[in-house]
Structure formats: C-alpha cells, structure tokens
Amino acid sequence: MASVRNISVAAGILIILILFGWIFTAPYLSNQGLGRTPGLIIGGTLTDAPADFTIHNDLRGPLKFKLEGFPSMVNYLSWVALEDGIVTATRPDGGYWGERVKAGSNKAWLRLGDNTYKMQAVQITGAQHLEMMGQWAAKSGRTLDEAVYEGSEPLREWEVFFWTPEQ
C-alpha cells in the first residue's frame, strides 16, 4: 500500500516539475511538434513605444508576443519594423492568434530584445498587404513567390498584421 502511495506522490511531483519546466522555458524555436508549444511568460521590461521602431531592425530572430485575454499564451513571430509599427505575418490557415486578432482581440504585448511594448494590431489587406509582405519577405531573405517550407503557401498569400502602440 505504501509503494502505491509513493508512486502516486512521485508521479505528482514529476507532473509539477514538467509543468514548471514548460512555464519557464516555452515557447520553443521551431515550427513543428513541440516547437509549436506556446509559453506563458513573455519577459522583458515594459517600455514606452519608441518614436521610430526601425531602431530594432538590426535585431535578429523572431519577436515574442502575448495576446491579452484568455488563454494568454506567448508565441514567436517573424517581423520587420517600420517607423510607426511592426509588421508580422502568418499563414492563411485559420491559425489561432490571427483569428483572434481578426475577431477583435487585437491588443498584445510584443517583445523585441529586452523591451516589451503594449501594442494593438490590424489586419492589412489590399495593395498595402503586398507592400508590407514584401518588406517582411525581404527581411527574411525570401521573395513573395517563395514558400517558407514545402507545402506552405507562397508568401504573397499570407495574412499581414500591423502592430502600433496601444491607444
């Protein structure tokens, strides 16, 4: 009877350790399997938005973002900074965060380097979509007709979102 209790306690402790490990390490840099696991902690220092976001264009790698509301998960996004905001893009596959933004849950924290900004997003359509997507593609070293990976849509079909400081 004592061994069953010990196994139960050990299993409980293991589950708690795994949960805490995930909370403090996710999200992961990958687009497959566990790499798509979102995190909970965005980190950084909450900072007033700069007058010109292009000061961040020398940073390499994705930004972290966390939408307001529940569930509030941290994910990575590829991006490019313009003077008045940040351009991000996502596949047109009905992904969770893009659908939330389109439905009006468009306020979030974006982390670039050690700075975290309170921002809001709008989806960009029409001619401006291709212009912004072209800038995003150029930063990532691709053209609008390329797919990021096999089976993916060409970049010109991706959804574009523009993040500006929250009003």
Provide a descriptive summary of the structure in words:
About 3% of the residues have low confidence. Helix content is 26%, strand content 26%. The protein has two domains: 34 residues; 128 residues, Electron Transport, Fmn-binding Protein, Chain A (Pnp Oxidase, Chain A), CATH 2.30.110.10. The protein contains three helices and eight strands, in the order αβββββαββαβ. It has 167 residues and is an alpha+beta fold. Strands 1, 2, 3, 4, 5, 6, 7 and 8 form an eight-stranded mixed β-sheet that branches.
In short:
The chain folds into 2 domains: 2-35; 38-165, Electron Transport, Fmn-binding Protein, Chain A (Pnp Oxidase, Chain A). 26% of the residues lie in helices and 26% in strands.
Name a few traits of the molecule.
3 helices; 26% strand; 167 residues; 8-stranded mixed β-sheet; elongated; alpha+beta; Pnp Oxidase, Chain A; 2 domains
